[in-house]
Each structure stands twice: as C-alpha cells, then as structure tokens.
Amino acid sequence: MCISLVPQPKSIKMLEGHAAYDTQCDRIIDVQMQPQAYVLKILPERIEIRAGSPQGLKYGETTLKQLCFCGGGQYPCLVIEDCPAFEWRSFHMDCARHFMPLDELKKMVHMASFFKFNRFHWHISDDQGWRIESERYPKLHQIGSRRQGDHFGDYDSDAWEGGYYTKAQVRELVAYCDSLGIQIVPEIDMPGHVSAILAAYPELGCNGAPVSVGTKAGIYWDILCAGKESTFEFIENLLVELLELFPGDTFHIGGDEAPKAHWKDCPHCRRRMEALGLENVGQLQGYMANRIAKFLKEKGRRAIAWNEASYGGNLDRDIVLQLWTEDKSGKVREHLKGGGQVILSEMLHSYCDYPYAFISLKSVYDADLASAALAGGGIGNIIGTECLAWSEYIRDVKTLEGLCWPRYAASAEVGWCGNDRPGYDSFAGRLENLFPAFALYGIEATQPDGWIPSEPEALKQLAAFQKNFPKEVMEGFAKAQEEV
Ligand SMILES: [Zn+2]
To answer: What is the distance in A from the centroid of ligand 1 to the CA of 224?
Structure first.
C-alpha cells in the first residue's frame, strides 16, 4: 500500500497491520504541542489524534481523509508526527475583476482545506469591481459592483456585468471557512486600484472628477486622495463595517501599483506632505498605510500590505509585507532587517493565473525561500507563503479551477514543508495518487500531462496568453509603473 500525502508530513513511521475506516478515533488536545502540530497514531483497534489545538486536530483528520485514497479499504497502521514549517499558508482569489458565485468560492475553500491551507486571501475591491454589500456606503455595491463591458486583454464585450456578495452571504462564507479551519483575509486595495470606489464616491479622489468602473486590465491613474481628511473618515467607517463581517486577526490594505502622479499636483496632498515634513509621495503612501494600520491595530487586527507600500522607506515594521515583485531600491530588505515580516508570493512561483507554460507545477513547487529579493532578510522573517489567481483573464469557474489546481497544492507543500520539501518528483507522484480527490470535491484540475506542458502545448498557451498584452498595453503599464 502506498502512502501518498500532500503536504508531506514531517515523519511517518509504518507499523504492522491495518485499521478499518470506522475504527474509534480519540481526539486529544495537548497544550504542550505547537498549535498546528499533530500526532496521528493508527493502531488496529484504535486511532488517536493528539494536537496542540483544534486546528491541529483538523490537520490530523485531513491526513486520515487523504489516507483513504491509498486504496485497500482500510488504513495502514502508522504513526505520523507533523507540524507546518510556516504558520501562514494562504491561497488567494480575485473576485473583483470577475465575480465568482458563492458556491464556487466554497468549493475552492473546501479543496484548499484538503491541502491544509489556513488562510483565504479574498480580493474584493479593485478598479473593475467592488463586491461587498455596504449599508454605510451603499453606492459601493449599487454602482461599484457593475460595469458595462469586459475588454480585459484579448476579449471584447459591451455587455453589462457584475455582482456582489450580500452580508448574509459573507457571513455564510466566513462560517463555512471557519468550519474548515480557514480564516478569511479580506483585501481592500488602497490607495490605488480603486476606480470602483471612486465611481461610487468620486469626491475621494484628488480632483473629484467622475470615474467609471474599469473595463480593462492594467494600472489606473485615479487613486484615493491622501490629503483630504474625509478620505480617512471614509476608510475608517468602511473598515468598522467590514471588521464586523470578518472576525479574523488580519486585514489586507493593498498598496500595490498606486501611481502617485495626481498626488504631486493635488493641493490637499501637498499640504499634508508639508505639514508632516514628508519628502516625497512614496512617504505619503507610507504615512497613509501606517495610519490605516494603526486604526486596525486599535481594533485588534494586523495589517498586511503589498511590497510597494514600503518604497517610501517609512512603513511601520508591524505591517506584514506581501512580496510579489522585485525589491525596488532594497526597501523590502530594509523592512525585514528592521524586524519586519513578509509573506512570500513572488510572481514567478505563485501567480497561478499565468498559463502552465509560463509557471509550471514544478515552478510553483520549486519556489526559492531564500530568494534574491530577500537576501539579507533571511528565512526567519517569512511568516508564510501564498499562491494567487488574479481574474482579469478568468471568466468562468472551469478555467479558474484548472489554473489553480493542482498548482495551489504545490504551494501548500511549500508552505507546510518549507525547505524540507522532498522534491518535485516525490510531490508529483504523491499528487497523482491523490488526483481522484479533485473530482470528488467537484474540481476540474489540470491533468498530469498538463503540469509541465509539452513544447507544442506550451507554445500554444503562450501565444494565446500574449494576445492579452499588445504593445500599447505594455507601454501604458510601464509608464504607470514609473509613478508607483
Ligand atoms: Zn490628493
């Protein structure tokens, strides 16, 4: 009988004999153990899961579930001692660019729990859509959740589309995640990627000019004004409303791709910079992030921000950075050297919206935890890992599932095993044995022959994907990046 588990446990000791699936299982909390650690003991007459917390017990139960895929109709007797390398293992979904039905989110969360993820980074606001019902600011969902057209990349439609999650649906999802040991980390991206917010409340921008909900991919120039006090009132009121929905201990405040050209010309932003003695707009973004993070801290939440938020060099050290791109001018490194922490989600090892030809299953598995971007920071500053699927070019759940799975499973093993991963070949073999689980969970995962695509298939995928990035789009992107 083969033992195929993903993520690979720290230690497996095989014993003689077998146990029936309905063997009595005792669950014991042992506070001496790490909260997420567990020991699973399967003996012919008795199964025992000993864990540091209810979360650890869940991981022991998940391991039991995976052992059912070994075949043979009964469990092999064994002792597994296990504990994750990283406390934080998140997967991400972008429901802003394209709305995804609640049932699909649940399916994804359910699948993620099978691979012992413990956080769901939920991207619910961006230029192209706001996705949560708000009583305090109802125009957010009334106006911000709908757009006329989808011109993302190589796609052209003028049809109206959109959608948002009611508060009842959000509560339902939070409870569902909680039952599976997964905490939602909501993200409201600011000060950039806010066209949907500005479409509803244009007075939050520097010049108050009307803004439409975006219908194209890319970086938008209109961002929240960091000078007006009313912007902060809006953010704080909104956060109060959202924190009531999301009881988790962390909140993602975005901070990526915010071109600050408007800030340079805005009298409010200039006045704020003068009053605070800030030297540049990068520092103004740092000030804004720090102020929001402080507000969240007072409410018992820790803030996460994308790496760009650190570029001003004045970001508070207790804001966790999510690293996705290069460390411009060594600011992430500085943040880490000062004791800051980071979630690792570098694009080339984590962005599962890219085709497999670009980021294969092996590329995700082989993520470098001591990457060049972190040199000088060190692995001790990493609290965890994340895999992501931005949805600019994902319009249906079948595409979503095929892109995420099984690459998300590779990320799960990176986060669970850290540098002690047994290697890609071992992983791929175990994953093939577990592959029937995807169908059982209702997920259309990419078949093994697509994990590292053949050359003709890879060329086909790349040609199709590159159609999304014509020259003028790339030029616009580069121009906006200069102001980030
Ligand atoms: Zn301004």
So the answer is: 7
Name the band, by pLDDT with cuts 50, 70 and 90, for residue 151. very high
Query: What one-character DSSP code corresponds to residue 246?
Result: -
d(CA 271, ligand 1 centre) in Å = 9
Round to whole Å and give the CA distance between 55 and 5.
18
pTM over cut 0.85: yes
> Mean pLDDT throughout 239-265?
97
Check if the beta carbon of residue 53 is closer than 8 Å to that of residue 370: no
Six-digit token pair at 265?
């010309």
Q: What is residue 9's DSSP assignment? A: P
| 274 CA distance to ligand 1 middle (Å) | 13
SS3 385: strand
HSE-CB at 95 with a 13 A cutoff on CA atoms is 25
Q: How far is the CA of 191 from the centre of ligand 1 (A)?
A: 11
The pLDDT of residue 157 is above 70: yes
How far apart CA 35 and CA 86 sit, in angstroms, is 12
How large is the greatest C-alpha to C-alpha distance in the chain, in angstroms?
A: 76
Q: How far is the CA of 133 from the centre of ligand 1 (A)?
A: 27
How long is the chain? 484
From the list 177, 219, 176, 159, the residue with the least C-alpha distance to 195 is: 219
Ligand 1 mean position, distance from CA 197 (Å): 15
